[in-house]
Amino acid sequence: MARPIAETPVLSGVDAHRFVELMNTPRPETPERKAQIKAAYDTVMKMLARNQKK
Q1: CA-wise closest residue to 40 among 52, 51, 32
Q2: pTM of the entire structure?
């Protein structure tokens, strides 16, 4: 039998402000990392397109 899922803690105060600031400020990605992400995306899209044809 599965264990119950624990409640997610609620952020408040300074932690909440820090979290919101981190979420609103995207990390700069290097061109190499962007190319790696795009290559992975293209690979997945090709796999999905191939599987839909069957």
Answers
A1: 32
A2: 0.51
